[in-house]
Design goal:
Number of helices: 3
Shape: elongated
Number of domains: 1
Distance between the termini: 33 Å
Helix content: over 70%
Structural class: mainly alpha
Largest sheet: none
């Protein structure tokens, strides 16, 4: 949770100021900067949902 908070904070800062030159293309992009922050919770939800479904299947 702490790591996600730090990541979202850095993402918010990138809207105002791009800290390094090698991140310039990512900072100027409008879509792909959302990829990692959305990928992590989506993957976590998918893993949890599959685990719960597997538990129901195993004990049915």
């Amino acid at each position: 949770m702490f790591t996600a908070s730090i990541g979202f904070t850095l993402l918010a800062i990138s809207y105002i100021f791009c800290p390094t030159s090698y991140l310039g293309s990512l900072c100027s992009d409008e879509r792909y900067r959302y990829l990692l922050p959305l990928f992590v919770p989506t993957t976590a939800w998918f893993v949890i949902a599959n685990w719960v479904g597997w538990e129901y299947f195993r004990y049915a």
